[in-house]
Amino acid sequence: MLNRFLVIILILFASNLYPEGRPTPFLDQELEQLSFYMGYLIGRDHAKNSYGFPIKFEKLAEGMKAGIAGDFVQGKEELVPLIKRMQKSIVEKQTAYNLQEAESYLKALVTNQPSLVEDESSKLFYLVKQEGNGLEVQGQPWLHFKMSEWKEGELHLIYSTYEDKGEPLQVDLEAVVPGFLRGVQGMRVGEERTIYVHPDLAFGLGKLDIAPNRLIVFDVLACPTQ
Question: Within 10 Å of residue 127's Cβ, how many Cβ atoms?
Fold first, then answer.
């Protein structure tokens, strides 16, 4: 939320609100518009990140006034257990929501992709985008791959060998998530697959800055030995 306000400040400066170095007073209407928009951003952040956690708006407004005025607030330490309980509740809701989102995506995928291969019921699928005729992938193969996560209705790129090194990466198949290992089994050099991995076979309850129960998609190209 703090970053939101920093962005607003930068926008205000970049918009030349103070032409020729002379402060220009704000009209009441302008202050109302700006105040409303700041409140709107706070509300959008809450809706996006709180997963429905309840809030009393009159108390929120009181707290904002106290913070803007720099008032001393007593009893903050007593709120630590409450904050931890709130955080736990938010994480639990996020985890359940992500799982529902992942499983809904996979169900829609099965319906819309007739060429999809199901490796494990409802949890691991792959699509052969290009056939290969080289050696079979095993051990520590050289692979080009992209890893993306499904969130908020679209895929978000996490990592790509194309953008990182610009060349294939030698991957230790004993060190990858189960869904990746099983998804590349049977691939031959030259083959390209898209692998759809349920959270249970990916990062589970979260790892490597990936939120809990995210569906992971791998685009993999098996490359010749370097």
Answer: 15
